Automatic annotation (TrEMBL):
EC category: transferase
GO cellular component terms, A-Z: lamellipodium; mitochondrial intermembrane space; mitochondrial matrix; nucleus; ruffle
Molecular-function annotations in GO: ATP binding; metal ion binding; nucleoside diphosphate kinase activity
Cofactor(s) it depends on: Mg(2+)
Role: Major role in the synthesis of nucleoside triphosphates other than ATP.
Alphabetically ordered keywords of this record: ATP-binding, Cell cycle, Cell projection, Cytoplasm, Kinase, Magnesium, Metal-binding, Nucleotide metabolism, Nucleotide-binding, Nucleus, Transferase
Residue stretches making up the Nucleoside diphosphate kinase-like domain: 3-140
Membrane disposition: Peripheral membrane protein
Protein origin, superkingdom: Eukaryota
E.C. designation(s): 2.7.4.6
Native organism: Channa striata
Localization, UniProt: Cell projection, Lamellipodium; Cell projection, Ruffle; Cytoplasm; Mitochondrion intermembrane space
Chain positions recorded as ATP binding sites: K11, F59, R87, T93, R104, N114
Record-given protein name: Nucleoside diphosphate kinase
Length: 151
């Protein structure tokens, strides 16, 4: 499905470390289409919904503190198998397991500062996109080059 979408976020450490451009570049060069993007300092209630599955984990309070500590850049990327492919591009949750060449494998060393978020399933992606974006913030546009991987 070429219309599959996923939510990618540059976390506060990624913004602080000026990694936003390099992260966007990786998704553009892979062939995905950017259909929404914004920068915000995420409110706690949004983050608690975003990470609701993790609320019983011991690291949950510090996760929310970190994620609300500064601005994040949230994006919606679209394309064939974008959910699974972007998880591979982002790499393992724990940077010690993340392969070189992945975003986490190239830019991070600790699980609590792993630079980037990516939805982990198509259903999860849909839920997260609705949480972070209003429908009108997502743009429908055509690639001028019909032979590229967007269409
Ligand atoms: P992912 O971000 O790869 O989807 P996740 O959904 O299991 O991983 O966890 C969300 C975030 O929570 C993760 O990116 C970083 C943080 N986290 C996960 N496990 C952790 C741990 N053992 N200690 C500290 N932070 C952790
Ligand atoms: Mg996750």
């Amino acid at each position: 499905d070429v219309r599959e979408r996923t939510l990618i976020a540059v976390k506060p450490d990624g913004v602080q470390r000026r990694l936003v451009g390099q992260i966007i570049q990786r998704f553009e060069q892979r062939g995905f289409k950017l259909v929404g993007m914004k920068m915000l300092q995420a409110p706690e209630d949004l983050l608690s919904q975003h990470y609701s599955e993790l609320r019983m984990k011991p690291f949950y309070p510090s996760l929310l503190r970190y994620m609300s500590s500064g601005p994040v850049v949230v994006m919606v990327w679209e394309g064939h198998n974008v959910v699974q492919t972007s998880r591979a591009m982002v790499g393992h949750t724990n940077p010690v397991e993340a392969l070189p060449g992945t975003i986490r494998g190239d830019f991070s060393i600790h699980v609590s500062r792993n630079v980037v978020h990516a939805s982990d399933s198509p259903d999860g992606a849909q839920r997260e996109i609705q949480l972070w974006f209003q429908g009108k913030e997502l743009l429908k546009w055509d690639c001028c080059d019909q032979t590229n991987t967007c269409e």
